Amino acid sequence: EDKVVQSPLSLVVHEGDTVTLNCSYEVTNFRSLLWYKQEKKAPTFLFMLTSSGIEKKSGRLSSILDKKELFSILNITATQTGDSAIYLCAVDGFQGGKLIFGQGTELSVKP
Amino acid sequence: SAVISQKPSRDICQRGTSLTIQCQVDSQVTMMFWYRQQPGQSLTLIATANQGSEATYESGFVIDKFPISRPNLTFSTLTVSNMSPEDSSIYLCSVLTGSNTGELFFGEGSRLTVL
Fold it and tell me: Taking CB atoms and an 8 Å limit, are A41 and B90 in contact across chains?
């Protein structure tokens, strides 16, 4: 059965800290891995990764994929309170657009 | 990208009633999906809304409980029928843009509370 597992499930840090969120997957077919940020209701797209070893970066956020070891990490440097959210990892397994989501990591950044 | 409008944004419903959620997209999209997110849980796909034909449901979801319409390429509805407290969730409409990329965009979600 295809699955996506995220760790940790929750994390509390202070502003300025750097965090690393983990996502591992086991899927029959792999097309891409996506990261989303969910603050209230709608997840917003962060990154899509398709190739191993190529870092995607957007401001203080970066992500990389390892297709050999079947995992991805999302790094957030110099965290701010506005980074507090649930971060979702999802895999596109060539199933007609269906994504398989992990449980999410709830990040709380304290002032 | 796509702008996706969902309504209602939230509602409180009585047990045994039904509620229809609407999803409007600002452009024509091929793929539309309905996800559910129960409290404290991640997203689970309910079904793929197919234009002009019956929706494709995931395991554990049936048409009688979650009837879906998709009359055109920009609009879809999801009905949650005969609701029970277990149906209290956020329901999210999502669309796939750029059919070769797999990038999903989500609507703002509809938070349903069933009493």
Answer: yes
